[in-house]
Design goal:
By secondary structure, this protein is mainly alpha-helical. The chain contains 5 helices and 5 strands; from the N terminus they run βββββααααα. Helix content is 77%, strand content 6%. Helix 2 packs antiparallel against helix 3.
Length: 179
């Protein structure tokens, strides 16, 4: 037991183990954790730059509408796409180990894209109702942007989920950083 008592002190490091894990496991954890941390940091910086550009470049006349649509994209991703990505993260390694990883990713992709299309239709309906209630002009180009954003985001999340499920942390970090 790595936490065995030595006198009145607790031994955290014994032989080739530290806190109950082998040194090779610690090296792998450090390497993969470093890639994940780098990816998250780069993603946060890219997000801040994107928000800054968006607030500077978006015309004030349609800023509220765009914010509404972006909110729908985030909500739609959480409700319609995230459950499939979570299933991908959970079950992909098992299917990959049996030689069915590509088949499973393809199947999850089909379900995710169908669900994302449902999200786009729902978002378009909500946006249309909002325009009627508020008396705003309906802008079909914003609905097309919503559709494009949801579909691109869905593919992005699916690839990120696959890289994460396959423990390809370096590729996952670069994907999330937009590289």
């Amino acid at each position: 037991n790595p936490l065995s008592r030595i006198g009145s002190k607790v031994a955290l490091f014994t032989g080739d183990e530290a806190l109950g894990m082998k040194r090779s496991t610690w090296r792998r954890l450090t390497r993969e954790g470093g890639w994940v941390l780098l990816g998250q940091l780069l993603s946060a910086v890219a997000g801040m730059v994107g928000v800054r550009l968006f607030t500077e470049l978006a015309p004030s006349a349609i800023f509220g509408e765009i914010q509404l649509l972006l909110g729908m994209v985030v909500l739609g991703r959480s409700v319609f796409v995230a459950p499939f990505v979570n299933a991908q993260l959970r079950f992909h390694p098992e299917y990959d180990q049996r030689g069915f990883g590509h088949w499973f990713s393809h199947r999850i992709g089909r379900y995710s894209r169908a669900s994302a299309a449902f999200c786009v239709v729902g978002g378009a309906i909500v946006y249309t109702i909002w325009c009627v209630i508020v008396g705003a002009r309906l802008r079909p180009v914003l609905i097309l942007l919503l559709a494009a954003l949801v579909m691109v985001d869905t593919n992005f999340v699916l690839w990120s989920g696959r890289f994460s499920a396959e423990r390809r942390q370096a590729r996952y970090a670069m994907q999330n950083a937009g590289m």
